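This section describes the prediction task in plain terms. A model, or a person checking by hand, is given the sequence of a single protein chain and must write out its three-dimensional structure as a string of tokens. No templates, partner chains or ligands are provided. The sample shown here is typical of the held-out split.
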Amino acid sequence: MSYAVGVVLAIIAVIVVISALVQVSHYRHGKILISGTQLVLRLVIAVLLLSVIGLSFFGPVYFSGRDDPVAELIFWSLIVLLAVVVMVLAIVDLRQVRRAQHQARAKLYQHLAQLEREIKAITENKQAEDNETQ
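The expected answer:
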């Protein structure tokens, strides 16, 4: 593995760890509007992503002096499988975020409709009072 690739992977690993810690901190302080399930899902994604990065470091070092193509194929297939699992879980998380946005938007529309009904009732009452006074 080239030095540049190793540095980039290390930077990505640090970013993943910091992002996970920020998510946990924001969740604990109530600054983020995700559920506990989503937080756990995001932490699982972070752990799996760190595993992919760590195994990507470990693989070239471990297999550099060995001549076992089957083991190497299984190893790299495992890394690809973990990466696919990370992508699937990220899609699940995205769907949960979209569902929560949809529910929040529906709640907002219901609240606006209620306010519209109240304004209409107040306006009608005011018009009826004005008609009675004339």
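For orientation: The helical segments are 3-28, 36-63, 69-133.
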